[in-house]
């Protein structure tokens, strides 16, 4: 412990950073995710992927998981099934438990997840997103537990500088889908405000694969988000809140129709305060969010409650960005987090839900101190960071990262090469620790998962990203990996156990090239291979994406996208044999087309066609995949 504290102290004293400006700032994109501060995209130590507001224009009509599935290294299981099915992130051979999702730089979590805390992607409204920043690789130093494979920062729409400005939109699509959305924002002297809302309903398709007699599983979801801010001299205060609701039908499981339905709600609120001074910026973030999940099944002519979960997450952090000199910068701070989980189940033969987990008895908390520094000597840079985590149940853990890299700026181009080594850990979720009867037993002896990551990054291109080539190779060594196993073959109850070791090696390659104002193309390829068979479920070794974007006229845009997913292992429970059947799913190729057309200054129409050639394939065994589908929409700005 003393060594850890001494090391953290040395980091704080010798903290260092880069912040040079050799290019014109106008068209050079910036990100905040790499160092918790504004940083030009091409100058980050690791290769950060940025989906800009212009990029999102060619994804109109697609939901968040469909957009993310086209990012290098991303596989979203269930993304190609019915929209009511869960969407599980598998990035660089990792799982959803390895991912932290931020909204405007602050974690938004769902602690009711069985093996993850990341927020449910189905709850988001894509129309409210301004841009998405993605930092792959171990990032526990800056973002804590779970940030072992990727951090995704979703930035909501920017506030207008006018007194009032807004947008209303609507879209219709296949499977009886209708959606409406609206945004109003503005700035009045020192005050700014924003209100967004959306509503979507769909008849859907059958979730389970089966005959035409299987019922369709539809859904509806609503989103309301508010933001209010005020500038008081050097102090900037922002308050935010939101409500997300998802009401949906789903089936019994693979190849099995059912009459289940779920009702999920998420409510959150928070504050962001920034105080800027001569050489730095002091930032305070806090967010509280609660999740309610209720599952019902049709019993006779009415629905009966089957089980419910209630989760609460309170997150608070205070950190300081300080520029010691032109070549030295330091970011250091404190973080505190509290989680609670409660659950109820319907007992065998029972008529009402009964408590399984008491909300107050599952409380866990963490207190972290972190420091990240950067040194620049000519074209050489060194990122160095450490975090000390104190968990109320799993004691203390120290993680650190080292990232030397060389960045050379030429007249119009740059090139960058770097190496990083980072350690990280994942605390078990409340569900994994406390279980949820009757099928998941508690395991209070479950140990945290730890890992070490080695990565080499290379990038060459233009600072404005009109041309860029990125390449990354990585090796991750995971220890005490979580895996669910059946332990009682009479009741088929199981629990989460630690698997000794798992190694993942892989590489990523990406290209973007804007030939001229008319033609833009790009693509990516990723490879990830796992050593432990028990962790390979639904994880492909290879994935590829490509796009060609054409602007034939000033106000027209056509985007053609291609996606390849290699074969992968899968399994399902066969109710006729009472056993788990293992299968290998075939590789598949998909094409999508998106067309945008501006009609005057304030109106824009779009059409999106997914699975253009109506390809037959399997995403998850036993569940139906979406055939060719159309979405037609229109937006009006005022």
From TrEMBL:
<dbReference type="Pfam" id="PF00593">
    <property type="entry name" value="TonB_dep_Rec_b-barrel"/>
</dbReference>
<keyword id="KW-1134">Transmembrane beta strand</keyword>
<dbReference type="InterPro" id="IPR036942">
    <property type="entry name" value="Beta-barrel_TonB_sf"/>
</dbReference>
<dbReference type="InterPro" id="IPR000531">
    <property type="entry name" value="Beta-barrel_TonB"/>
</dbReference>
<keyword id="KW-0798">TonB box</keyword>
<keyword id="KW-0812">Transmembrane</keyword>
<feature type="domain" description="TonB-dependent receptor-like beta-barrel">
    <location>
        <begin position="218"/>
        <end position="612"/>
    </location>
</feature>
<dbReference type="Pfam" id="PF07715">
    <property type="entry name" value="Plug"/>
</dbReference>
<comment type="similarity">
    <text>Belongs to the TonB-dependent receptor family.</text>
</comment>
<keyword id="KW-0732">Signal</keyword>
<protein>
    <submittedName>
        <fullName>Vitamin B12 transporter BtuB</fullName>
    </submittedName>
</protein>
<dbReference type="InterPro" id="IPR012910">
    <property type="entry name" value="Plug_dom"/>
</dbReference>
<keyword id="KW-0675">Receptor</keyword>
<keyword id="KW-0472">Membrane</keyword>
<keyword id="KW-0998">Cell outer membrane</keyword>
<feature type="domain" description="TonB-dependent receptor plug">
    <location>
        <begin position="43"/>
        <end position="148"/>
    </location>
</feature>
<dbReference type="InterPro" id="IPR039426">
    <property type="entry name" value="TonB-dep_rcpt-like"/>
</dbReference>
<dbReference type="InterPro" id="IPR037066">
    <property type="entry name" value="Plug_dom_sf"/>
</dbReference>
<keyword id="KW-0813">Transport</keyword>
